[in-house]
Amino acid sequence: MITKDSGAPATRAIVSTGLAAAVGAPLGLRPPQLWSGLRIGGVAVGVIAATVAALAAVPAVRVGMNNRRIPPDPVRWLALDIPLATVWTEEMLFRGVLQTVTERAFGPTVGPLVQATAFGLWHITDARRVGDSVVGTVVVTGVAGWVFGWLAKRSGSIVAPVLAHIAFNESAAVAALAVQRRHSSNGPS
Hints:
By secondary structure, this protein is mostly helical.
């Protein structure tokens, strides 16, 4: 079983991709689905990055970003942990494996809701670890999981939710790093 603490980023990505392949998940990694995933995912990246940037201007959000625990090696976090260990692994597990299996079991309406609920619940440990609201985290990540699932279905490619997910995680991480750097050099903002 893959947990959030299982192994190196590449190992997690390989195992989760193998599981997605084993269930016959429609990953859409070849044209024309790939082009659709890149196009739709690209639009999502712009919307998400702009939203995170706008939210970073809200004082309460900046306080939360300033209080966020940053890993000791931010370069590894941004270059490996977020894209491979978190985003790719979660997209393979939830939009690849779980959405495929739950749609087969429950149909195209209930399946994505089950996948999204599981995605929300998957983040309980993270919420507790960083001191965030568990209910808020489950709701927000559950909604995000449903949107990511919709992006995968709409585009026919896992690339669209991968791009959206990475845009959210990376832009939030970069914003937190910037807020903390600014705070430490200029005092509270």
